[in-house]
Specification:
heterodimer; A: Histone, subunit A; 2 strands; B: Amidase signature (AS) enzymes; 13 strands
Chain lengths: 94, 472
């Protein structure tokens, strides 16, 4: 697979990152080195193997559907610099 | 080494003025920190306030024991950054469950320890922008290991009744413990609640103790383990009385030595003393058999970095300069604003892992990388489970090398850098408990042995670990 500047920029933009030219230059050969190593997994026959998304068996945990205590708006907003009328204030959507 | 059991007793009997004691501990912690950079924050006011409270009515398993906390674990009203500039200024509104449990048992929180940003590293050199790199207690030109490097370093240096909380995703408790010559115990996945832990990779993260003695780790694990209704992956099983397994007879244990862990890439300075200890254990009546477990060491690193970065890249999307942590002037549309904040305040390794993980999950590549890795993970888990049908404990070295110099780390390629996790990713992917035991020194630097147990068999690691502790 070709790891070029365009691909790195595209992947970074999906993750809401703008990399500097220096970072891209550094990451390109590193991604190549890593992905080449990871392709060793192609040697492993996993035809009849199910994937594991956790190391132990987990069950769904649910709680009773009733109201519980929650944060007050003042507390919920105590860590933000951007707020207005008891809401978080965000950047423009369009 | 301070006898924690005796110390707690004397605090409860009011033989020690705990407020005076805490002042002294904080002064020492501050002077050590100036030299070694083990703390991101020292919580002097909180500690003194807790000590005053405890003085009135000294009680609890940890009465008066000071606890340092990896910076990725939330402590109410104390800046919690996980070592990242993007979380600078964030003060949680709540304690992590582990902190609640420690305070309830009389433990005193003294600070937040240095780490690789979000846990992304094996040397604690990938600290966030503006953070300091912790230095090895045996040689300041060398690494503490990572990512819980601050916790392991301060555990070595602070000679009081002190325990530390680390966190491991792929080896971040035992590997720094090995480099700093202390005990680190990473519990079974789900044994300790992750509520209030800043995630790296949800299916891999575990909080666990770091201490000078096996007793210390057993005591802290006993305090923090157990089901938590706030955390859906927390295991609902009874908690063993771990301290009662310290120095408990273990001569009938069946030990498996993983052959592949003594091959190419594992330094002679590690292999030799580890084998010497295995032979010593044999001479004391603990028998061993060599066993082949090819998958974890051959493929574990690839599986770990694909799954870990995939999970991390989704987890880190929430840092966008809106609700907590670093903010910038609100301008541009949401894409531009989030991109600006993230690009400015995330460090290089965080960016690298986000790019890698986003790539591994992308349409067209997901099956070949992410899903493939999750399947090989199943094979790794099954291989271990099969081995634990025969063995009580598996032994390998903890790290393939001794603590390197910072100048040596700078020269490593990215893959060589990640290789530091080669022996620890296996138990982490399988969610198995594992403990680092210092077995001595080579070239004046510590050597660590890794004991791995079956799910929920922390007690056996404590039994064998304390046996080794007495005989090294």
């Amino acid at each position: 697979m070709k790891i070029d500047k365009q691909l790195i920029e595209h992947v970074a933009s999906l993750a809401k990152l703008k990399l500097t030219d220096k970072e891209i230059e550094e990451f390109m050969p590193q991604m190549k080195e890593l992905l080449e190593h990871f392709s060793q997994l192609d040697q492993v026959n996993t035809d009849k193997v199910q994937p594991s998304f956790h190391p132990i068996e987990l069950k769904n945990v649910t709680r009773e559907d009733k109201k519980e205590e929650c944060l007050t708006p003042e507390k919920a907003l105590s860590n933000t610099e951007h707020k207005k009328d008891n809401y978080f204030k965000g950047p423009g959507a369009v | 080494m301070t006898d924690i059991k005796e110390f707690v007793k004397s605090v409860k009997n009011k033989e020690i003025d705990i407020v005076e004691h805490i002042h002294k501990v904080l002064d020492d912690a501050e002077s050590i920190n100036k030299e070694y950079n083990y703390f991101n924050t020292i919580t002097r006011d909180l500690a003194i306030e807790q000590a005053k409270e405890l003085k009135k009515n000294p009680k609890g398993k940890l009465a008066g024991v000071v606890v340092s906390v990896k910076d990725s674990i939330c402590v109410k009203d104390v800046e919690t950054t996980a070592g990242s500039r993007i979380l600078k200024g964030y003060k949680p509104l709540f304690h992590a469950t582990v902190i609640d449990r420690i305070i309830k048992e009389g433990g005193i929180i003294i600070g937040k320890t240095a780490q690789d940003e979000f846990g992304f590293g094996g040397f604690s050199t990938n600290v966030g922008l503006g953070f300091k790199i912790p230095k090895n207690p045996f040689d300041k030109e060398r690494s503490t290991g990572g990512s819980s490097g601050g916790s392991a370093g301060i555990t070595n240096k602070l000679d009081y009744a002190h325990l530390s909380l680390g966190e491991s995703t792929g080896g971040s408790i035992v590997e720094p413990s090995s480099f700093c010559g202390v005990v680190g115990l990473c519990p079974t996945y789900g044994r300790v609640s992750r509520y209030g832990l800043i995630d790296y990779a949800n299916s891999l993260d575990k909080i666990g103790p770091i201490s000078q003695s096996v007793y210390g780790s057993a005591l802290l694990l006993e305090t923090i383990a157990g089901n938590d209704k706030k955390e859906s992956t927390s295991i609902d099983a009874p908690v063993d009385n771990y301290t009662s397994f310290v120095n408990k007879e273990c001569k009938d244990f069946k030990i498996g030595i993983i052959k592949e862990a003594f091959g190419e890439g594992i330094d002679e300075s590690i292999q030799k003393p580890i084998w010497a200890m295995i032979k010593k254990l044999e001479s004391k009546g603990i028998k061993y058999t060599e066993v082949s477990l090819p998958t974890p060491i051959k493929y574990g690193l690839s599986v770990y970095y694909l799954l870990g970065t995939s999970e991390a890249s989704t987890n880190l999307m929430k840092y966008c300069g809106m609700r907590y942590g670093k903010h910038e002037a609100l301008d541009g549309n949401f894409n531009e604003y989030f991109t600006k904040v993230r690009s400015m305040h995330l460090g290089k390794e965080a960016k690298r892992r986000i790019v890698l993980g986003t790539f591994a999950r992308m349409a067209g590549y997901r099956d070949a990388y992410y899903l493939k890795a999750a399947k090989v993970r199943t094979m790794i888990i099954n291989e271990y489970k099969k081995a634990f049908g025969k063995f009580d404990c598996l032994i390998t070295p903890t790290a393939p090398i001794q603590p390197p110099k910072f100048s040596e780390i700078d020269k490593l390629s990215i893959l060589q850098n990640y290789m530091i996790d080669i022996l620890t990713v296996g138990p982490n992917l399988a969610g198995l408990p594992h403990i680092n035991m210092n077995i001595g020194f080579e070239n004046k630097l510590p050597v660590g042995m890794l004991l791995t147990g079956n799910h929920l068999d922390e007690k056996k690691l404590i039994q064998l670990g304390s046996f080794i502790e007495k005989r090294r």
